[in-house]
Amino acid sequence: MISQPSVDVRFIDREDYRLAIHITENREGCGDLILLHGAGVASEATWYPLLSAFQSYRRVICPDLRGMGRSHALDFEDCAISASIVADDVDAILDEFSVKQCQMVGYSFGGLIALMVNALSPGVVDDLVLLEPALLERSSLEELRDLRSRYATAASSLLVEDDPVIGVTQFLDLISPNRSTHPRVERMTVQRLASRPKGLAYALMAVNEAAWHIDRMELIDRSPRTLSLVGSKSIDDAHALHQILAASREDWFYQSVPGVDHALPYQKPGVCADLICAHFGR
Whole-structure pTM over 0.70, yes or no? Predict the structure, then answer.
């Protein structure tokens, strides 16, 4: 049995914000792996179940993105963010830990941030895996923007309702319409997303803003060798876009992950880890 690696949590300060970074180290390993989680969740819940598969790396670096996990403002109040600020945070973390070249994995919101970090620091990310990346869930930009405006409605509910379950459920109905609604599964999913409701809300609002101001095709064109993973239960249009990208680019690969929806790293962490390692040649 492969043992679970020990994780050290470190903090770096950026102006009025403190970022938590979860790190595993193996002196006998080689290379750096950066893991970026999705909106409303955190590195511990998302990536710890996969870490045993990544022990060939010298370092695995998992930031808690702004508004999530153990990262917090110095006054502990969650506030509005932008995707650009979060990408700048990650870029600063790479600089802080002297990461000159790495492989990177981004899930959902973290997938968008991974593409943006790659554009900020060309050549640093030499290989990429995207798990259901934000802004790449619809082929039509008009339909994407309409969808994202509905996410903003869910975000508003998270900010004004006393019960975060209302806004979280609205969000899940949009992002995982074909998910399992078994009471135990639904309860676990809601609990995972409701831990920082304002952080989730502000991340959703940041992606909605990005849908109008970021050129996603430029991010795609600048991306390195990339594998995109999409849950088989996700909507057909998401699969169609990633199939088009794989067919039109020699260095873009697409895989449908059987039996899962948007929550694929939680539902099948072992399968995701195997596909990531295979793409990275680990």
Answer: yes
